[in-house]
Amino acid sequence: MKIAMGNDHSALELKNIIKEFVESKGHEVIDLGTNSTESCDYPIYGEKVGRAVASGEADLGIAICGTGLGISLAANKVKGVRACVCSEPYTAKLSRLHNNANVLAFGARVVGSELAKMIVETWLDAQFEGERHARRVQMIMDIENS
């Protein structure tokens, strides 16, 4: 699977850890984040991840900033993106099972590297259940299209 990853300056170290972890699981990473600790604007990287996923360049995306909130808001502005902020594995799992989330976001100032790995692994392993959830996801997409 191809995973687009984006990050701002606050998440450079965690991005590199998660990138290596995702690659160790056999996935290809498209690194769209900054490689500098110099202050930068997270919306740039949230949009890059969102566009990579929405265009089909990547199957899924991971976006990391200080809290995960700002970068997820930017990713969610891209049509077709369903980005979720997850600070623990249970929400990550349900975001895929029930909401078919295609971008995972979390905060480098909120979760440590080992918890982030658990969140990512849980999220990548979960599969959309469809059925009643498909109707609800379609309702969300209908809002986006109206």
What would your notes on this structure say?
This protein is 49% helix and 16% strand. The chain is α/β, with parallel strands linked by helices. It has a single domain, classed as Sugar-phosphate isomerase, RpiB/LacA/LacB (Ribose 5-phosphate Isomerase B, Chain: A), CATH 3.40.1400. It has a 5-stranded parallel β-sheet, with helices on both faces. Helix 4 links the parallel strand 4 (83-85) and strand 5 (103-107). Helix 2 packs across helix 3 (69-76). The longest helix has 14 residues, at 42-55. The chain is globular and about 40 Å long.
Keywords, please?
alpha/beta, globular, 146 residues, Ribose 5-phosphate Isomerase B, Chain: A
Low-confidence stretches: none
Q: First CA to last CA: what distance?
A: 31 Å
Shape summary: globular
- CATH homologous superfamily grouping: Sugar-phosphate isomerase, RpiB/LacA/LacB
What percent of residues adopt helix (DSSP H or I)?
40-55%
Instruction: Please state the average pLDDT score.
Output: 97
Helix-strand makeup class: alpha/beta
Strand proportion, as a percent range, falls in 15-25%
Strand line-up of the largest beta sheet:
2-1-3-5-4
Instruction: Characterize the main sheet.
Output: 5 strands, parallel
* CATH topology description: Ribose 5-phosphate Isomerase B, Chain: A
Number of domains: 1
Number of helices: 6
CATH architecture assignment: 3-Layer(aba) Sandwich
Query: SSE order, as H and E?
Result: EHEHEHEHEHH
